[in-house]
Structures are given as C-alpha cells and as structure tokens.
Automatic annotation (TrEMBL):
This is Integrin. Keywords: Glycoprotein, Repeat, Signal. Pfam families: FG-GAP_2. Residues 1-30 form the signal peptide. It comes from the Bacteria.
C-alpha cells in the first residue's frame, strides 16, 4: 500500500464550469512568473538502507517533520527539524512507544504537524488484529520546544490500516482508515475518525464513513483540513475515496467534503471528475482552502498523449456549492508519472500555491521514475490555473529516486521527499529536498 501524505491548509456556478472546460487543456501550458530554487538537502543523521527517509513530510511554522518508516526493519522513525534562518537543523528524533514498537508497523509512514500538535501514523501496526494500525499524538512543550507523546490510539479491525492518512489543526485531528468497515458499511468502505482538542486534552468524536458508503471505496485514503489561520479551529475537511464507484465500475473515485457547524461535522458535498473514467482513482490525494477543493487522479491520461500520467481537478465555491473549475496536468507529463499522488497547498496573501507531486515522472528521456513536483497558480482568467515551475533533482536525478512521493509547503519553503534516493552507496536511504521561493525572480530580475 502506498501512503498518502496530508497536512492542514492555512491561510455563478455555470460560468465557472464553462471556464473550466475552456481552459482545461490550457492548464498544461506554462505561465512562468514564479521560480523556486534548491536550498538544501536533508538526510538521516546516519543514512541506513531501506529507511525511506522522506516517505512523509509535514511543515508548520519553523518545524519540518520527516518520516522514515523503513528504519529498524520497518519499525520506523520520525525526525523533527527546526529552521534557523534558512538552515533546517535536526532537533529531535521520535520512535513509536516501547509497547507498540514493532517491525513492519511503519511508524512515520504518515504524519501531520500544525502549531503545537503532531500526529504520526503507524498504519501497519498489528494490535489484536493484523494490519489494524495505530496513531500517536504529540504535543510540543512550550519550554523545550520538543514534541512529547500525549497518547496513542487505534482501531482493532483486521486490515483497517488506521493511520493510513492523518491531518491535524489547532483543535481537530483526523485519522483515515480506508480498510475499516464501520457497523452497517460494506467491506473496505473506509472511515475517518475525528478527535477534538479542548482544555488541554484530546477526546474522540463520532467516526464517519462516506454517504452512501461504497464497497472497496477506501474512504479516508487521503485527508486535508482547512483552518482559516494558524491556531484557529478547522472549519472544513476533504476526504478522498479513490476506490469509490458504482458496482462494476470501481476506482472512479470521489472526494467528500465535510463542514463543521453547530451540530458538529456533517457531510456537505460529493465531488467527482468532470468526465469520470474507471481506474483514474480520483481522490488519491486532496487539498482544500476556504473556496477551493482539489482532488488527485494518478491514473488519468494527459491530453498531450501520455497515458496514466495523472491529473488534479480543482473546484471553486464554498462548502456545499463547490463547482468544477479546471483540470491540471503537468507540461512535461510522462506516462505512469502518478501526477497527483501527493499535494500541498499554501495561501500566500490571496494567492493559493498548489504543489503537486509526480514521483514516477521521468527526468529527460533517460532517467526514469526520478520524480518531480509541479507548482501551479490561478490566473487572472477565471477558472484557469497555470504551471509556474517544475521542481526536480536536475542533473543529479537518478532513476527511481521517486522525488515528490511527499510534499509540504509553508511560506517561502517547500519540502519534497525522495524516499528511494541513494545516499552515497546506501540504497533507498532517502532524502528531503528543500526549495525556497526565488524572490529576486519574482521581482522581475532574471
């Protein structure tokens, strides 16, 4: 099972639909007004074979949290980096608590940090049921600046993979378990578990499944929370169900939007591709802001001719009335690139920056599956998005690095994981590439 990495986003309908149709193919043409440059490369303190450092990344304020789920025979490790100036320095190392330290559990396969809250998934942990999964909650100590374990939790259902995806804000946490079947739901329908933080403590809330629930839908495979600003309560979340579809047409995929109101969380909308095709897997990844929702389809064909290259569909509006806006493709889309496997969104002023990962994208004609992340911005023309930049390892790219298996951004920085990158002669050790926005270029100097 591949993991979906998710983080909190901070910061009329017919016309929108028409513009989306008109500009759906224009989203593969460049409008280069923004550039990002390599700042640094992070590795484990002592790189080890098959650590897969960078399998998951999450950034908030001056913190970057990196998962290496392959360390110690797959028990997993999480590394915390703190920014000083433009330098990201290792400040802490986390392991699963001793009572659930288990080979093959993959602690750190998913994670999310926001402010003082950190949640880490261990989706393959075997509790009383094989592959049931577990999640650890951490809280940052205001004095030491380090994250301390608050508690761990799970859901004992075989193959439930509790913690397959996670998201967190100042007051809410979401845990995806795409293999869980809640009471009355079909097999592998999936579920999202909700936790609320209040008066210095977390408490569990009712779990959700998609309505209607679908057999094999994998609801909760991806998650994204929107909080209006750092430290405030989240108001909306999106959950992907890439296996969703009518009987005999699974894997079309859908994205479900939930809104927080007086009665708590409630499903407000279902979203799907403009032209659904079986096998696209829409909802493999998700991102959300106050007025937009994005869903990734890793097996979507590129209009430029690349098969199963992947796409991202954007929706504009408000909870309950999001409408199709545009479909985004990479300019240099290669077949089977899995564009849309990872996503991260950051709102800079009024401009949302969308970073989309394609971990199987080729670098040139000879370096296969090296991976790349693509930067998109909305354009002045309503309903149009345009690619701004392509982030890669450039001439240092090596086949099967899988850069952009994970991506997370905050402010001027974006962290992009390459979990299969060789470090020295150590195979699959993994690296995280840090990029910074080129403000000189943005000012018109090239």
């Amino acid at each position: 099972m591949s993991r979906r990495k998710n983080a909190v986003v901070q910061g009329s309908a017919i016309a929108w639909c028409l513009c989306g149709l008109l500009f759906s193919t224009q989203a593969i043409h460049a409008a280069t007004t923004e550039k990002w440059v390599t700042l640094s490369q992070l590795t484990e303190p002592t790189p080890a074979a098959s650590s897969r450092f960078g399998e998951a990344v999450s950034m908030s304020d001056n913190y970057l949290v990196v998962g290496a789920p392959g360390t110690s025979s797959g028990a997993g490790t999480v590394y915390v980096f703190t920014r000083t100036g433009n330098a990201w320095l290792l400040s802490d190392t986390l392991h699963a608590p001793s009572w659930q330290l288990q080979a093959g559990a993959h602690f750190g396969a998913t994670l999310a940090v926001s402010g003082d809250n950190l949640v880490v998934g261990e989706p393959d942990y075997d509790d009383t049921a094989i592959g049931s999964g577990s999640v650890c909650f951490y809280r940052r100590n205001a004095v030491t600046g380090k994250f301390a374990l608050a508690f761990d939790t799970g859901y004992a259902q075989t193959g439930g993979h509790f913690g397959y995806s996670v998201a967190v804000s100042a007051t809410q946490a979401l845990i995806g378990a795409p293999g869980v079947a809640l009471a009355g739901s079909p097999a592998n329908a999936g579920a999202v578990f909700v936790w609320q933080y209040s008066q210095n403590a977390w408490s569990s809330m009712p779990a959700f499944t998609a309505s209607p629930a679908g057999n094999g839908a994998g609801f909760g495979s991806s998650l994204a929370l929107f909080e209006p600003s750092t430290g405030t309560a989240a108001t909306t979340f999106a959950a992907g169900a890439p296996g969703y579809g009518p009987s005999g047409a699974n894997d079309l995929g859908e994205v479900f939007v939930f809104t927080f109101g007086a009665g708590g969380w409630a499903q407000s909308q279902r979203l799907h591709e403009q032209s659904e095709i079986q096998g696209d897997g829409f909802g493999t990844s998700v991102a959300i802001t106050a007025d937009r929702v994005f869903g990734g389809s890793i097996a979507r064909d590129n209009p430029g001719g690349a098969t199963m290259s992947g796409s991202v569909t954007s929706f504009y509006g408000s909870p309950g009335s999001f409408a199709y806006e545009d479909e985004l493709f990479s300019i240099s889309g290669s077949s089977n690139a899995q564009f849309g496997q990872s996503m991260s969104l950051y709102v800079d002023g009024n401009a949302p920056h969308l970073f989309v990962g394609a971990p199987f994208a080729n670098q040139g004609a000879s370096v296969a599956d090296s991976g790349a992340a693509y930067v998109f911005l909305p354009q002045a023309t309503p309903g149009a998005w345009a690619q701004q930049d392509r982030l890669s390892l450039g001439s240092d790219a090596v086949a099967s690095d899988h850069l952009a298996s994970s991506v997370s951004t905050f402010g001027l920085y974006v962290a992009v994981g390459a979990p299969q990158r060789e470090v020295g002669t150590t195979t699959n050790a993994g690296v995280v590439e840090i990029f910074i926005k080129d403000t000189i270029f943005a000012d018109g100097l090239q």
